[in-house]
Amino acid sequence: MLVATSTALGPYRVAPGDLLAFLAAKATGATSPLPVSAETVILQIRLPRVFAATAVGAALAAAGAAYQSLFRNPLVSPDILGVSSGAAFGAVVGIYLSLPVLAIEAASFAGGLAAVIIVYAIAAAIRGRDAVLILVLAGVVIGALFGAGVGLLKYLADPYNQLPAITFWLLGSLAAANLRDLTSLLPAVAIGLIPLALLRWRIDVMTLGDEEATALGVDTRVLRIVVISAATLMTSAAVAASGIIGWVGLVVPHLARLVVGPAFTRLLPVSVLFGACYLLAVDTVARTVGTVELPLGVLTAALGTPVFLWLLAFSRRAAWS
Asked: Are 86 and 71 contacting, i.e. CB atoms less than 8 angstroms apart?
């Protein structure tokens, strides 16, 4: 229902009945009841954007749930290891160099992966302390460093062409989503979700702590690398496709945890479903609430702040780990 509603709404509105008739005609090979212009809007603009919104929302929510369970910390979000900042820096470099769209997305993805590699290298070099704590602190530091790089490039960018493009991208948007974006986004999200689904029982064991998990036969080091790599892959792909969209990976797992509890075996699928529906609903509001489309990053922050404060008020009722 939400997918149909989002597809029908927009500056070029399509009646729900006409939309269903059009989809039925496409499925059966019958003549379409809609004009060519409406078909173009639905097939080339609306549906790619709907699929992109659901994929990005699912990816960010799944990554947030994985990070929160792995680090046993409800305040962890997908950018905890500097992934979002690194991906943003890569994309800004591409925009600053006037690279084509595909190259900008590749640079964004490479930046996110580079951030995680640097963070892990720092954590590996500093031994004798809490590995999780060092990993998180290194992520904060590297994220701040990449953020400074973004600020520097914004300062150096052409204020008439490059700076507006950088600013618009950093605010987050799916306005430019197309079928080509889906060919890189959907496989990356699927590749990231598969290991999380297969290892969901072991991730549950990790919530007991490293010593207990090791005693139960779980290789915590390898599992942590696999989970972080999968979550990073999904986050980088989402950032490359949509820009910086915050709060989804932080708030949605909390909502899912209130519904099904902290067990990752139940938390992962519910977080994926909630994240896809949440971002699709927010994106629909962003492009229909006014004459000018609102940035997704701004809207998710405006909605996420009061929701998160409400969740904090009921945090004692939720078992975080």
From this structure: no
Contacts 24+ apart (CB under 8 A), 271-275: 271/61, 271/62, 271/64, 271/65, 272/58, 272/61, 272/62, 272/193, 273/58, 274/61, 275/57, 275/58, 275/59, 275/60, 275/61, 275/62, 275/64, 275/248, 275/249
Distance CA 270, CA 263 (A): 11
d(CA 209, CA 166): 41
Both structure tokens of 139: 């992520």
The mean of the pLDDT values for the chain is 86
Query: Is 87 in contact with 241 (CB distance < 8 Å)?
Result: no
User: Could you give the domains of the chain?
Assistant: 2-317 (1.10.3470.10)
The answer to whether the beta carbons of residues 171 and 295 sit under 8 Å apart is yes
Distance CA 38, CA 318 (A): 46
Instruction: Say yes or no to pLDDT of 31 above 80.
Output: no
Q: What angle do CA 157, 150, 169 make, to 5 degrees?
A: 75
What are φ and ψ of residue 3, in 5° steps?
A: -65, -45
What pLDDT, on the 0 to 100 scale, is given for residue 318?
Answer: 46
Query: Which region, left, alpha or beta, applies to residue 172 given φ > 0 means left and ψ of -120 to 50 means alpha?
Result: left
pLDDT digits (tens, 9 = 90+) for 51-73: 999 999 999 999 999 988 888 87
Q: How many CB atoms lie within 10 A of CB 270?
A: 19
**pLDDT band, residue 93 (cuts 50/70/90):** very high
Chain segment 192-239, per-residue pLDDT in tens: 999 999 999 999 998 887 788 888 888 888 998 899 889 988 998 898
Three-state SS annotation for 60-84: HHHHHHHHHHHHCCCCCCCCCCCHH
* Cα 292 to Cα 300: distance, rounded to the nearest angstrom: 17
